[in-house]
Amino acid sequence: MKKLIPLAAAAALLLTACSSGNYAATEIPAKPAPSVASVAPPAAQPNCGNPLASYQPDGALPAPGTMPAGTTMAKIKQRGRLIAGVSADSFNLGYRNPVTGQIVGFDIDMINAVADAIFGAPATGQPHKVELRVISSPQRIPTLQAGSVDIVARNMTINCARWQQIAFSAEYYRSGQKTLVQLDSPAKTVADLSGKTICAPAGSTSLDNLKKRNPAVKPITANTDTGCLVLFQQGKADGISGDDTVLAGDVAQDPYAKVLDERFSEEPYGLGIPKQNVDFVKFVNGVLAQMKADGSWMTSYNKWLKPALGELKAPPTPVYGR
Amino acid sequence: MTQTQSAPPATSSPPAQQSSNTPQPPDVRKPGARGIVARWFEGTPGRMRAFLVLAAAVSVVFGLAAAQGFRQSDGALERAEANAAQLVRIQAIHTNLVSANADATNAFLVGGLEPPDQRQHFVDSMASAARLITEASTAQPADQKALAELNTTLIAYGGLIEQARANNRQGLPIGSQYLRDANAVLQNDSLPLVNALVEANEQRVDTEFDNVNYGTIWVVVGGVVALVIFAITLRWLARRSHRYVNVPIAAGALLILLTTIVGGVALSSASGGASSTRDDAYAKTLALSRARIAAYDARSNESLTLIARGSGDAFDKAYNSASATVDDELKKSSSTPDDLTTRWNEYKRIHGKVREADTNGNWDNAVAMAVGTTKENNSVDAFQAFDDSSAEQLQSTSDTVSSELSDTRGGLPPIGWLGLPIGIIAALLVAWGMSQRLEEYR
User: Fold this and answer.
1) Quick check: A226 and A203 in contact, CB under 8 A?
2) Is A15 in Cβ contact with B68 (below 8 Å)?
3) What is the DSSP letter of B278?
4) How far apart are CA A269 and CA A93, in angstroms?
5) pLDDT at B73 exceeding the cut of 90
6) CA-CA-CA-CA torsion sign (B29, B35, B40, B41)
7) What is the DSSP letter of A192?
8) E strands, B345-396, where?
9) A3 exposure class (CB count in 10 Å sphere: 0-12, 13-18, 19+)
10) What are the two backbone dihedrals, phi and then psi, of residue B438, each rounded to the nearest 5 degrees?
């Protein structure tokens, strides 16, 4: 009996200890492992003849506001606005001006011209009849295939692989791939950047070209061009590989960066259009030809791109024959 | 035989015992403690001593058990209150963070020209969150590690937000990317930590609410065991001594019975009080907190949908699920649709207008409603109304939880301190009562 007393006391103490408020430390949730940018090898380009060849316009453009019945343009006219997929963060190409809140740039000028050709030029102070949808680089082809946009103007390179999925307008700008590095970098070409981390937007031709040029660089991807610039500013990327137009925008936002002279690819830009809307491609080609002819193309270039990329003699010549 | 005759007139002692005493020479095991102990419990007086020891020990154990039961319930109530307060604190941190983020994303829609009020609200929310984190980490050491981790992520978040603002202010589009990254840090790094903290503290509150009930078990089981032993003792004694009642021992039993009844009733009413707090005020507090968090989440997603300009389906879905959570939780917080529900429905109505404008391609008008520059259908004012009214209700319900729990604690009789003295008094009564009978054997 006497033995039981200390036992009971010990049990009582034990039970008290169990509920004295000494809780286990709050578990810290495990961080999801960062998805490693597993980059598939660049797919071989299928042969589609000259990728730059687009559909020849059928004669003169119809007058604004009078679209032939049954055409894609008539449908857009009926809807009351052109829906375009654009970038909102490629400085000078398509970007949201934080001060005005408007999306502006070289690409946007092309879209506005197409809209004006359908609806007629808006009165001064009125917006163009365009709904701009901001899309990321990997979203360009899926949104076109789904038909949720009429046209994509988002520094998109024309190539044969993409011709299989969508249609392109005639070339509206000739860009080329360059590399952006820190201002104090001794590198002269991509070959000097072996082992360095270089950023390129996911799903872009820049990524493929970079790996072809120097397989020894460590690629890292971001969803947008600006995403790469953030990685660069945070020191997570040593450089950015991309079109000279995009890099010009990056340098304009970060004076501690420079663009290497080496230009190692040709990037002809086209406006992306759903594959089945051939009538609309022809119409857009007509608009582009008109812009190139009447000088509005050059005005736009001079406004957005000339300060960073220099004088340009003439806009690219359209190739037809598809 | 003369020796046995000199024994007290134990009329009821069986003769067999007497005869068995004789052949057992007491001097054989004279040395050796075992022998002494054995002799101590020998015969009728020995049994009396055995009953005395047993009943006295049980009295003391009962005293300890009663004290333990009360301390358990009292401590559980105290900890439930503290943990509920901690939970409210963590949820306030959560609310402040999502509210700051809603401000930041909404301000982005207006560009570099942030409305000063909104900016101030952002700064205030972040400051309250920082203060609450320190308070919370003092209040609950078990949360310290997670809170430290949370602090680290918030420094990253704050840094990215400021970088976004600086770039925005210079008209550089990279600002939007910093904002997106900041939002990602909050969603992917900070909020999972907050959710883990909420879960851990909800569990602690639940555990303590359960523990309140266990106090009653200690007292009742202790009391019943003690009373059974006392009953056996009294019965045995009555048979041996031919006296119906041994008054001191019966008094001890009565003392234990009273303590058990008073204690049991007090504790079960306390646990009843605690569980009604749990089902009512505490459940309401939880529901309101969750509703507020989901509402801010919905608001952020409204802005993000607009920022994404046409490719914001994912954000719109997130809005819908957050908004459904608000509806559910508001239903839980009050059985009848009240003022708060009306305000939330008004905000939802304006959200519908915003979405309608955006889907019809009138983005500028949608943004104007969302940032509150319109006279009618002003989303900012509607949300503010919901925010103010829900904050007020939350404050009052969480105050109710804490006052109800402290009232319950205050209503407990001081058996936590008196339990052991009561047990000792009962043991002394047993000793007294038994020694009266033992006297007769001297």
Assistant:
1) no
2) yes
3) I
4) 12
5) no
6) negative
7) G
8) none
9) exposed
10) -65, -35
